Amino acid sequence: MAIFFNAGTVGFDTVPDMKLDGKVAVVTGATKGIGRGVARELAQHGAHVYGTGRSAPERQQLDERTTLLRCDHSVDAEVDAVFEAVLKDHGGIDILVNAVWGGYDRMMEDGQFTWPHPFWEQPLWRWDAMFSAGVRAHYRASQLAARGMVAKQAGLIVNISHWAAQKHIGNVAYGVSKAATDKMTADMATELKRDGVVAVSLYPGMVRTEKVMEAAQWLDLSNSESPEFIGRAVVALAADPDAIRHSGKTLVVAALAQEYGFIDVDGKSPRPLTLADV
After folding, report:
1. What residue ranges do the domains of the chain occupy?
2. CA angle (276 as vertex; 272, 278 as ends), nearest 5
3. Pick from 26, 231, 238: which is nearest to 144 by CA?
4. 17-30: per-residue pLDDT in tens?
5. DSSP structural state of residue 131
6. pTM listed for this prediction
7. Cβ contacts of 117-122, under 8 Å, gap ≥ 24
8. Which residues does the annotation mark as catalytic?
9. One CATH from 1.10.10.10, 3.40.50.720, 3.55.30.10, 3.10.180.10 for 2-103+131-260
């Protein structure tokens, strides 16, 4: 039984059978934000976790279960080297979480906040970054992980996505790239299903990442989620022997919390968002 103790609150929540002992996980984009929260939760529940990031050292052992590897996911040779290192250490991968994403850099250009600009005023590099360091990065990492998963007829691939796939939020490039992520996930699931490998898109709500907290005074965080909350959703899916029922779907983190019975680190239960809410 895994115990999710909530720092700063009275009491705790318990969820049975959430142990991931012996499982090997790769979390891309794990040096900050959602990726880091997911990596922490997977390691806390017994998995050996390899986290990647451009700002990571060449190889850093954070603790007995967590290793950081430097990787620019727009460079194929660096991506291949990461997976070769994991396979050399453990021989296989059980869980892949694609949290890396491009296009968030340089939201300010020449003193202007360009993120919400109409598509004809958007810098073209933003489109390229979201696909090369986002959608394509998820695709390549999934290719490398899926081969071993198919061979052993088990595994979980999670692509972090967003409601922008279904509704205009932010800008055109963001929405198109997230829609591509969801379609990619659904098609991967179709091809993986006969081999027992699960692929899902995961929708967080408002997540208290480092960037979000920098703007906290201007935001309504009353229904927000910690990065670790997203990690708990991944843990629940990875530990679920019947997770194949979710394969190919877009899943809302807070809705999974209700299904599996876990809560956030602050003791709260964020309300699941719907398309009408976002």
Report:
1. 2-103+131-260
2. 70
3. 26
4. 689 999 999 999 99
5. I
6. 0.92
7. 117/171, 118/171, 118/172, 119/171, 119/172, 119/173, 122/171, 122/172, 122/173
8. 174
9. 3.40.50.720
**Token pair listed for 222:** 């009353």
Q: What is the pLDDT of residues 129-180, one digit of tens each?
A: 999 999 999 999 999 999 999 999 999 999 999 999 999 999 999 999 999 9
Residues ≥6 apart with Cβ < 8 Å to 148: 87, 92, 93, 155
Q: Mind giving me the DSSP string for 56-118? A: S-SEEE-SSSEEEEE--TT-HHHHHHHHHHHHHHHS--SEEEE----S-S--EETTEE-TTS-
Quick: pLDDT tens for 88-119.
999 999 999 999 998 887 777 777 888 899 99
Q: Between 86 and 216, where is the model more confident? A: 86
- Beta pairing partners, 197: 155
